C-alpha cells in the first residue's frame, strides 16, 4: 500500500502476503493491526464504544509495515447503497439522459430521497483495482461521490471516496432499468481507506475527478460537498429506518461531477477521485463482458 495516499486517522483493510485480510488503524504515519477485530464486529458496536476502543492506548496492537501489504476494499459484509439526485448537477444530468424528465425533477425536490442498492461488500473494488463498463452499454461514466460508512445503529463512523460507475444509456432508455445501469461486476469502488468521522469535517470538502486516456487528460472537474441538498447523516438514517443492517453499510451520497457528452468511459481510462481530507481513489477502467442473454417478450400484449 502507498501510505502517502491515505488520510489519517483511518480504518484500512489490508491483505498480507499469505492472503489474509486484516483490519488496521492508520494513524500518525503508522499502521496498526486491530486483530482480532474485523470491520463487521466493529460496526456492530455503538459509536461511543467503538470510538473508545479505537482510542484506547492499552489495546494490544502490532505494527505492520505498509510496504509489505496491499490495500483491500474497506468493506466486508457491509452492503453498499447509493442516493440519487442529491446535487443540482446530477438532476440536470439525469434529465439529459431521460425521456421522462419529471421523474428526476420530482426526486430532487421530494421529501423522500432516492435510495438504491449498489453492491455487496465483497464486490467493492479497492484503490488501484479495475472498475468496469458494461459491454452492452453505449454511454458510461464514472461518478465521484462522498462515501459514508455507518454502523448497525445508523451512526456515521467514517468517510471515503466513492466511484459509482453507471450506464447512462441503459438508465436513459427507461428509469426502471436503473438496477442494470448501476449493479454489475466492478461497478463500485471505495477507498483508499475509511477516515474516522469524528476526526474530520467534510461538510464543505472539495472534490475533484480527473480522467486520463492514453496519458492525456480527457476530463478535469471540481465540486464541493457543500452543494449537496441533503445531509449525509440523515441519508444514512433513512437507509436504516425500515431496513436493519447488523454490520452497518456504505452509502454513496450522489454526484455533482458528470463528464459531459461525448465522453464515455472506455477500457484503459484512468479515473482519479480526490476529496479533501480523504485521500485519492485511483482505478483503471476495464470491460465487463456480456453473455448475450436476452429475455424479449414472446408475444405482444393484446390491445
What are its keywords?
303 residues, alpha+beta, Fumarylacetoacetate hydrolase, domain 2, 2 domains, 11-stranded mixed beta sheet, 5-stranded mixed beta sheet, 7 helices, 18 strands
CATH topology of the largest domain: Fumarylacetoacetate hydrolase, domain 2
Choose one word for the global shape.
globular
Report the CATH C-level class of the largest domain.
Alpha Beta
Tally of DSSP helical segments: 7
Q: In which range does the helix fraction lie?
A: 10-25%
The number of E-state strands comes to 18
- Assembly context of the chains: single chain
| Unreliable spans | none
CATH architecture of the largest domain: Alpha-Beta Complex
Sheet with most strands: 11 strands, mixed
Radius of gyration: 19 Å
Structural class: alpha+beta
Overall pLDDT confidence: 92
Straight-line N-to-C gap: 61 Å
Give the domain tally: 2
Question: What percentage of the residues does DSSP assign to strands (E)?
Answer: 25-35%
**For the record, what is the CATH homologous superfamily label of the largest domain?**
Fumarylacetoacetase-like, C-terminal domain
Q: Encode the helix/strand succession as letters.
A: EEEHHEEEHHEEEEEEHHEEEHEEE
Amino acid at each position: 500500500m502507498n501510505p502517502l495516499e491515505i488520510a489519517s486517522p483511518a480504518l484500512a483493510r489490508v491483505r498480507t502476503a499469505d492472503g489474509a485480510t486484516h483490519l488496521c488503524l492508520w494513524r500518525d504515519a503508522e499502521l496498526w493491526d486491530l486483530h482480532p477485530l474485523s470491520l463487521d464486529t466493529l460496526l456492530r458496536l455503538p459509536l461511543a464504544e467503538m470510538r473508545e476502543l479505537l482510542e484506547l492506548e492499552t489495546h494490544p496492537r502490532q505494527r505492520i509495515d505498509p510496504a509489505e501489504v496491499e490495500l483491500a476494499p474497506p468493506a466486508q459484509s457491509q452492503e453498499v447503497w447509493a442516493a440519487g439526485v442529491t446535487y443540482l448537477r446530477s438532476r440536470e444530468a439525469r434529465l439529459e439522459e431521460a425521456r421522462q424528465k419529471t421523474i428526476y425533477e420530482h426526486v430532487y425536490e421530494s421529501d423522500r430521497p432516492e435510495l438504491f442498492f449498489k453492491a455487496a461488500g465483497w464486490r467493492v473494488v479497492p484503490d488501484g483495482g479495475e472498475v468496469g463498463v458494461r459491454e452492452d452499454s453505449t454511454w458510461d461514466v464514472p461518478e465521484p461521490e462522498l462515501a459514508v460508512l455507518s454502523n448497525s445503529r445508523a451512526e456515521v463512523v467514517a468517510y471515503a471516496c466513492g466511484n459509482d460507475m453507471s450506464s447512462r444509456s441503459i438508465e436513459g432508455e427507461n428509469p426502471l432499468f436503473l438496477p442494470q445501469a448501476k449493479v454489475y461486476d466492478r461497478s463500485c469502488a471505495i477507498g483508499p481507506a475509511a477516515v474516522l468521522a469524528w476526526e474530520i469535517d467534510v461538510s464543505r470538502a472539495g472534490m475533484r475527478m480527473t480522467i486520463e486516456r492514453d496519458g492525456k487528460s480527457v476530463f478535469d472537474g471540481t465540486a464541493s460537498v457543500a452543494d449537496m441538498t441533503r445531509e449525509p447523516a440523515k441519508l444514512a438514517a433513512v437507509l436504516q429506518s425500515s431496513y436493519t443492517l447488523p454490520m452497518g453499510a456504505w452509502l454513496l451520497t450522489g454526484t455533482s461531477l458528470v463528464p459531459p457528452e461525448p465522453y464515455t468511459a472506455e477500457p484503459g481510462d484512468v479515473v482519479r477521485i480526490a476529496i479533501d481530507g480523504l485521500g485519492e481513489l485511483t482505478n483503471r477502467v476495464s470491460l465487463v463482458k456480456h453473455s448475450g442473454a436476452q429475455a424479449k417478450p414472446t408475444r405482444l400484449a393484446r390491445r
